[in-house]
Amino acid sequence: MAGKMRGEASSSSNSRKESVVEDFGKRRSSCGYCRSPGRTSISHGLWPHSITVDDYQDLLDRGWRRSGCFLYKPEMERTCCPSYTIRLRASDFVPSKEQLRVSRRMQRFLDGTLDIKKVGLLEEPNTSKGSKSLGHHDFLSQPSKVSLSSENEEQNEVEKELHYLSFQIDKLVHMFSGNGDFPPGIQLPEASVKIVSQGKRKLLVKGSEDLLYTSNIAFQIASVIRRKQSSDENVLQLRLSKHCAEENGLSPSSIAEKLAGSLNQVIEISGLSIRACNGHINFYCTNRQASSGESVQNAVSKSSTGCGSGRNYSKSPQLAQEKRQRLQIRLKRSSFDPEEYELYRRYQIKVHNDAPDHVSESSYRMFLVDSPLVFVSSTGDGTVPPCGFGSFHQQYVIDGKLIAVGVVDILPRCLSSKYLFWDPDFAFLSLGKYSALQEIRWVKENQDHCPSLQYYYLGYYIHSCSKMRYKAAYRPSELLCPLRYQWVSFDIARPLLDKKPYVILSDFTKLQNGKLCISPVTENDMEMQHDGIGQEDSNDIPINEDEEMIELESESSDEESGSETSGLTSREIVDGDVSKILIGLKDSRLKFKDLQSSVGPTKRRYLEAQLNKYMRVVGSELSERMVYSLD
């Protein structure tokens, strides 16, 4: 079926086009995810002079990714942070409560019921470059230090406070994790601050009539830590791990006290006090008059407008009506746009703290404008969407102002999200999450024009990097097995990745009676996995994981010939048949078997070795279809 769709998508306008690539071999670089001091990120690189959308789609489905005109694929057994291609079928997507809140917040902003006026620098979570690469959508917004003037229902005011408090807790949790206060390798839960109903307050101890909100995040964190520590242990060891956690300050009570103590230093809402109580983080109203006679919502409204908050809520319906705004989402082919570049420059400097002299026009062009994809125009026959196939920039414009740009590739079977940059003044709209929802929606809407277009690719999922785990929030998602290139449900993959960063996912393809079922490994699987490990030399990769081009530094290496896999070990690889590989020499195109007689034995053996490595990383089908350039 996939082959049939690929053939259908190859329109007559694309029939004379071809993919021409140079093989750069293995590359080493510093890692933008784990920030290790050495060059521990290892991948294979290709430099395409041109590449068809069909071939790039198939490369994506073998774990490849592009940065500008450079293609790369992580060496999963050897790299420090194994990166799994992640996707979801757009028609199956089910938005979470948080994703629905993001959509509602944007709609309220456009309707004029969420009129935001900036009075200070909007603060974003502390993110590294690696957290935003290969996809995006991992940025939360902080609604602090802003002036709000809106006609809004009281429950919306409460929602803003809850969102702000939850965000501040999440920031602290990630900060503690980064400082080593929590064990490494755990998937941190998202904080949720909830209203304490009046009925529940009456049942609590004296003095809790002032209790407004509470969060049980400490219990969730402690539970995740216990599961991590007690995996594969018996009941006795489980109890011991629980006792050990309490002694090490990782019980719900100690975690809650740690968070509450830090929150008191960063929360900027007057009229609220924060205390830990039996593992809960509680938020109390210090305005006795409000708490004794008014609803929780009124108490929140009063505390939000108290001294020091800098916030003011207006009830003028005329004001809301006058501030209605229009959002336009424009899709255009990838090209240099001065307005987009200025927005990108602001974003990199303010959000990623890049030095201004590092955000040049040339680096922007190489990273987000240049593309090797051969454009395919629409044919009107249901095989190509109206916009065509290729590389695009999706502009988000509000009342004529450009606020965000999503860089995407539209391919025969998917929309592949590459990068997003946005106006820091609009961080409160959670544009990363909002743009992901719009890209998923775009795929759904265009399936009528192109039935083969069904998936949304979010780039790489890196389970060992907590800042990249947001991608799994778009459900139901699948991860690509690095061995057999089969798609495996994230729900199956997650418990495996909790135990080790590199897993052959297709070993565990289904659940039986609640337990994972292991698939047998065949002789062919063994050959597919070990792409000549220990037989090649490694160089620095000239990119930093979809973020920026870096200076190339070469080094020779013949090490690492025996990495472990989940049940597999590296072994000698029998060279495949490379005679059918298509070779490009000047203006000629010929199979390698037709070229062998014209080269000497030494050069032939060298070329055969190079072609074997190339065939293993791109697959035999693509190696026969793409042109291996010797120019």
Key phrases:
eight-stranded mixed beta sheet, alpha+beta, arginyl-tRNA--protein transferase activity, 20 helices, N-end_Aminoacyl_Trfase_N, single chain
**What is the end-to-end distance?**
36 Å
Q: Helices and strands: which structural class?
A: alpha+beta
Let me know the number of strands.
24
Relative strand content: 15-25%
Look at the structure and give the mean pLDDT. 76
The biggest beta sheet is recorded as:
8 strands, mixed
Contiguous low-pLDDT stretches (5 residues minimum) are 1-16, 118-153, 232-246, 288-321, 520-575
**What is the share of helical residues?**
25-40%
User: Rounded to an integer, what's the Rg over CA atoms?
Assistant: 27 Å
Helical segment tally? Answer: 20
Approximate shape: globular
Protein name: Arginyl-tRNA--protein transferase
EC number: 2.3.2.8
Keywords: Acyltransferase, Transferase, Ubl conjugation pathway
Domain N-end aminoacyl transferase N-terminal: 29-99
Layout of SSEs?
Layout: H1 2-9, E1 20-29, E2 41-50, H2 53-60, E3 65-67, E4 70-74, E5 84-89, H3 97-111, E6 116-118, H4 129-132, E7 146-148, H5 154-178, E8 193-195, H6 198-203, E9 211-215, H7 217-229, H8 235-247, H9 252-266, E10 272-277, E11 280-285, H10 288-293, H11 296-304, H12 317-322, E12 327-333, H13 338-350, H14 361-369, E13 390-398, E14 401-410, E15 414-422, H15 431-446, E16 455-461, E17 477-480, E18 487-489, H16 490-499, E19 508-512, E20 515-518, H17 523-529, E21 538-540, E22 582-585, E23 588-591, H18 592-595, H19 601-618, H20 620-625, E24 627-629
Parallel strand pairs: 1-21, 1-24, 15-16, 22-24
Antiparallel strand pairs: 1-2, 2-4, 3-4, 5-16, 5-17, 6-7, 8-9, 9-11, 10-11, 12-13, 13-14, 14-15, 17-18, 19-20, 22-23
Helix pairs in contact: 3-15, 5-9, 5-11, 7-8, 7-9
